[in-house]
UniProtKB/TrEMBL annotation:
Pfam hit, one: LRR_6
Keyword Electron transport among record annotations: no
Protein name: F-box and leucine rich repeat protein 20
A Gene Ontology term for the protein's cellular component: cytoplasm
Keyword Repeat attached: yes
Gene: FBXL20
Organism: Scleropages formosus
Keywords on record: Leucine-rich repeat, Repeat, Ubl conjugation pathway
Domain of life where this protein originates: Eukaryota
InterPro entries the UniProt entry points to: F-box_LRR-repeat, FBXL15_LRR, Leu-rich_rpt, Leu-rich_rpt_Cys-con_subtyp, LRR_dom_sf
SUPFAM superfamilies listed in its UniProt record: RNI-like
Domain (F-box/LRR-repeat protein 15-like leucin rich repeat) ranges: 198-373
Length: 445
């Protein structure tokens, strides 16, 4: 028996050793390391780790994400660029140590680079864009959001050297003016995605040039670009018929006139963020309901002129029955329970936000929930959160506090774990737990 046990132990050790050896062979084989994402280990990743990976994977590596790896700098990325010359997709998002030297290395050694993410790499300047334009002509997508040292000169060099750009993310590049956009409109005919959020100096002049030169545009974000007017929407409608996503939050000069021109020409729209477009009325919703049958996500938060009549048209439009999934109506003071009745036909509705809609009542919400449950929309999960009810429906005194605690306890049992801010806003008055879905997908925003 002793001999048998020893023999069995030896066999087990031998098997484990063979497995370990096989694993080492696989681990050391660079061909098995074509895609690497180190985001989950970002706090532990230092330059030497990147250098070792690059030496091991060499020319096999095609995709690498170092997003959030604060310990990685120019020296490690120079070694990486020298060793991984076939890299096509590289994310350095949030790698705040890197400078223009990294882009110089990529330009020199990585001519096949197609996607580069440099968001929040705040030391990046126009020199980086000039280097990329010279050495990475195949570049299709570039994210330099929050690289606020970039100006028109860098954009001009980039678009002239990389004519195949499909996606350009310039969010928070506050130095950019219309001249930069004119270069984009002139040299980027393949552009599909453009994000200019909070580029506060741009105006209609530059954006109209983009619309006229980039007819394939599908996703367009100019949220926070407060200088734009209906002239931009009109140009967008006339020149970009394949537009699917439009984000114009906080563009308070836009009116029904502009959105009418847009809706009548852009029938493929799927997502629209119109938050704080304070001049629009039900007329815009009527046009969207008639001309935009693919609409899935619509934000109307702080559009204070929207009424039940506009929601009625939206709820009876071609997008309502099978398309509309998300509707945000936060701070729409004229919206009442009647709007919820109009939305009963929206069988794909996944989420509706009603924060601070003072004319929405518990009874109205409950009727919508009951109506959804009784319809054929068995897949419907309606998320109602951050709802403030009128004062007459508030819990009061010690009983209110107890009710809030009970509500939170029940909410957590259903998979909804509010953050402290959400607790503060939601539970005095609180959202009755019976209106929360049986789902673990609910999140505080």
């Amino acid at each position: 028996d002793v001999l048998k046990r020893r023999r069995g132990g030896y066999q087990q050790e031998a098997a484990q050793g063979a497995a370990a050896q096989a694993w080492n062979i696989l681990a050391l084989d660079g061909s098995n390391w074509q895609q690497i994402d180190l985001f989950d280990f970002q706090r532990d990743i230092e330059g030497r780790v990147v250098e070792n990976i690059s030496k091991r994977s060499g020319g096999f590596l095609r995709k690498l994400s170092l997003r959030g790896c604060l310990g990685v700098g120019d020296s490690a990325l120079r070694t990486f660029a020298q060793n991984c010359r076939n890299i096509e997709v590289l994310s350095l998002n949030g790698c705040t140590k890197i400078t223009d030297a990294t882009c110089t290395s990529l330009s020199k050694f990585c001519p096949k680079l197609k996607h580069l993410d440099l968001a929040s790499c705040t030391s990046i300047t126009n020199l980086s864009l000039k280097a990329l334009s010279e050495g990475c002509p195949l570049l299709e997508q570039l994210n330099i959001s929050w690289c606020d040292q970039v100006s028109k000169d860098g954009i001009q060099a980039l678009v002239r050297g990389c004519p195949g750009l499909h996606g350009l993310f310039l969010k928070g590049c506050t130095q950019l003016e219309d001249e930069a956009l004119k270069h984009v409109g002139t040299h980027c005919p393949e552009l599909v995605t453009l994000n200019l959020q909070t580029c506060s100096q741009v105006t209609d002049e530059g954006l109209i040039t983009v619309c006229r030169g980039c007819h394939r545009l599908q996703s367009f974000c100019v949220s926070g670009c407060t200088n734009i007017t209906d002239a931009m929407l009109n140009a967008l409608g006339q020149n970009c018929p394949h537009l699917r996503i439009l984000e114009v939050a906080r563009c308070s000069q836009l009116t029904d006139v502009g959105f009418t021109a847009l809706a009548r020409n852009c029938h493929e729209l799927e997502k629209m963020d119109l938050e704080e477009c304070v001049q629009i009325t039900d007329s815009t919703l009527i046009q969207l309901s008639v001309h935009c049958p693919r609409l899935q996500v619509l934000s109307l938060s702080h559009c204070e002129l929207i009424t039940d009549d506009g929601i009625r048209h939206l709820g009876s439009g071609p997008c309502a029955h099978d398309r509309l999934e998300v509707l945000e109506l936060d701070n729409c003071p004229l919206v009442t329970d009647a709007s919820l009745e109009h939305l009963k036909s929206c069988h794909s509705l996944d989420r509706i936000e009603l924060y601070d809609c003072q004319q929405i009542t518990r009874a109205g919400i409950k009727r919508l929930r009951v109506g959804a449950a009784g319809s054929n929309a068995t897949h419907l999960h309606l998320f109602l959160y951050h709802v403030l009810f009128p004062k007459q429906e508030w819990h009061s005194g010690a009983g209110g506090s107890a009710a809030a605690s009970q509500c939170l306890s029940g909410a957590r049992e259903r998979g909804f774990d509010p953050c402290s801010a959400c607790v503060e806003f939601t539970c005095s008055p609180c959202v009755c737990v019976e209106f929360l879905p049986q789902s673990k997908d609910v999140r505080c925003r």
